[in-house]
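ok so dumb question maybe but i'm new to this and my supervisor (M.) told me to 'just get the structure for Aspartyl/asparaginy/proline hydroxylase domain-containing protein' and walked off. so i did the thing. is this what she meant?? sequence i used:
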Amino acid sequence: MTENEAEGVSGTVGTRTYLTQMIRRYYASLIDAWHYAGETEKAMECADAAVRQGVWDQPLQRAREHIPGLRAQPVHDPGEFWFIGYLEESYPRIRAEVERVLDTPLDPVVPTTDDAGLIRKGSWKQAHLYRDGRWQSHVRARFPITSDILEKIPDVTELSPGVITMSRVSPGTHIMPHCGPTNGLLRIHLPIIVPDGVGIRVADREMQWQEGKCLVFDDSFEHEVWHRGTEDRVVLILDVLHPGLQGDHRQRVLGRRRNFEEQIIEFMRERGVERVAIRDGEITLTPDAGVRELVATYMAGTGLTGVHLDGDRVSWERPDAAPGPRK
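this is what came out, is it supposed to look like this??
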């Protein structure tokens, strides 16, 4: 094969990989939209169609970054991981610290922004002790005992591109069905406070947490959480590499850790923003040329001069007319 032929093959493979990622992204967004609307059957029709078209291998495992060859198993045996015993033995100390911190002026667990779109109803709060390859010092300072315990487990810190998160869900909450971004990670739940009436579904298995007993699952499988009880549920969430991940795939997954600057850049590119600025506490976003042209086209075509979106309410602004709310 000549050098030019090799470059052509490489370019073809790269294009195919890019297209596959884009198709998965659009399919995942459509499925999520149906789930958010409460249309479970239509969501699964889309998932089944994606499998028929070769986008994914099975309808309930829909990672946007799917690594071939990994064991596809929704729930894993905690005994496969050396540190689970140590983590469960440390549960009483972790719980005691959590109970001392929650609902005090020092409580860092706040309404989630990363996953707010998954909340069908209710309240979901989080605090990240570790993310993007580094400890989050302001949260770690609130949970020193828990952090010291976890620091002795490199599998969930420097050997993982994932998160360590304190997660709190209030009564009446429903976190809609969704899939994690990669099958290269497994998610671990150490249940801290588990009242009656809470549960989780992973693929086709419905389960209840047991305080102090770890649940290990592949969150690239569809999962959802509900809370029909009367007291808050608190879980410590950790990520670990899939035990079957090896070689280049392992290095690529580990390389997913991004600093804050890279996250800002990705946010701006995905949303068509060319500039972000903060002045006197006010945030200003400037759209790029493509978004400006698209908005101008829409506004000109409808005769609108402004639109204000507030949850489910929309206010349309037209020339010489007062803004009119609309559901």
